[in-house]
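Researcher: Good morning. I'm working through a list of sequences from a screen, and I'd like to move beyond sequence-only analysis. For each chain I'm collecting a predicted structure so we can compare shapes side by side. This is the next one on the list. No need for commentary yet; just the structure.
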Amino acid sequence: MNNTCPKCGGKISPLYMKENCPHCSVNLLYYNLEDNLKSDAVQAQREVDAVNRFFNIIKSSSIASPVLIIRLVLFFTPLASMCLPMYGNISLIRLIMGLVKSSIEISDVMMPLISMALVIVLSLAVIISSLFSSTKTGFLRNMIFSAINTIVFVVLGLIIGGMGIGWYVTLAIYVLEIIMHIICSRIINKNID
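Model: Good morning. Structure tokens for this chain:
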């Protein structure tokens, strides 16, 4: 509670529990109630508008056109391509099953495991970044995350060696994602103008 009367400005003890001001007898609870309600309504509308703007950014960045939807689906395809042999005969499914059944040692597959984990983590970063493509720096951010994702993937592939069909398919998906960012950027900018 405020320690002054809203009408006369007189000081009120924090322990004062009556509803009327001891100095001017105005009802402390209902004084300027209409103005306070209007102020609360304006603040609530600002908050609703902020939430609506947030959802409009996500919608215009991800599902506003069929091309944006295709790009969104494309982001999840590395999970499928990792089920193909990535490094030699190691695929995501074989790696998981081998670790669950204890038929392979983690130390034997540490680098492929790190590579596949980074594919998943960096792909999530690209997905989250793409949800804000229609913001001012959205295209630049998308390109940076996708480039980092692709470079890390290629470098780890070169370090590990023995790239299988899954590795090449995943790399093709990453290149396609970069192309889709460029196409989607044009669509988003066209929709904004």
